[in-house]
Amino acid sequence: MSKKIHPTAIIHETAKIGENVEIGPYTIIEENVVIGNHTKIASHCYIYANTQIGENNQISSFVCLGGLPQDISFDPSKKTYLKIGNNNIFREFVNIHRSTKIEIPTTIGDNNYFMGTVHLGHDCIVGNNNIFVQNCILAGHVHVGNKVLISGHVAVHQFCRIGDYSIIGGLSKIVKDVPPYMMVDGNPALVVGINVVGLRRNQFNEEQRRKIKNAYKILYKKGLTYSNALNELKQTYADDPDIQRLINFVESSQRGILSATTTENE
User: Fold this and answer.
1) How are the residues of the chain apportioned to helix, strand and coil, as percentages rounded to the nearest 5?
2) Which residues are annotated as catalytic?
3) pLDDT (tens digit, 9 = 90+) per residue, 168-217?
4) CA separation (Å) from 51 to 47, 64, 91, 242?
5) Which of 40, 82, 117, 242 can bridge 93 by disulfide, Cβ–Cβ 3.0-4.6 Å?
6) What's the rounded Cα separation, in Å, for the pair 266 and 254?
7) Which class is domain 200-251?
């Protein structure tokens, strides 16, 4: 298999380029970069040092991957990393920074879609099969689960977590954790119901959706403290893996979870 590298591209001699990789005009690839097989990089991209990119990724023009963290305490001599999995799509002007920690890279999983001008700060960890819509921004240390949709112009505060199968409406301001399965909207953001459409699209059957909806009501609509709500969820759904995902997320929250609106929107 061959590589298709434009003669104007600048590639450091220590970079490792896989098979059937395409690199467009005026793209710059710094030292110790790894690019997996079948990845396509368009023109005018910048891949910074110590970035590891898996296979079959599509990187559009003007994307910057692995730049220095925007952290005034960061020592730029530290060798830190951005690690990207397989089958991701990065549209124009996406900007993702490498980590501040040597031992834990900024990490992107597989099959994620980053629309134009999305920004992810240092030390973010992103799972699989997520969609990031135009102009959404994530501060440092944000963790995103799997099969999440973050809409346009959303801003996520540092150290927040976004749970699996959740959806965040456009222009929302996220300052606390978003539990799995929830639909979130507003500034400041509130939980407005469960992500019914997302659950259906991901093959959650009617019985699973019914349990999740009831768990949402126990957590948010019965007037219980979160501690008492979790106890009730454990007693009611002791062996249910879908509800256990929700329980584990809430119990492990450091910033606290978003509150719910008093208006029903399910």
Assistant:
1) 15, 25, 55
2) 122-123, 140
3) 999 999 999 999 999 999 999 999 999 999 999 999 999 999 999 999 99
4) 7, 11, 18, 35
5) 117
6) 27
7) mainly alpha
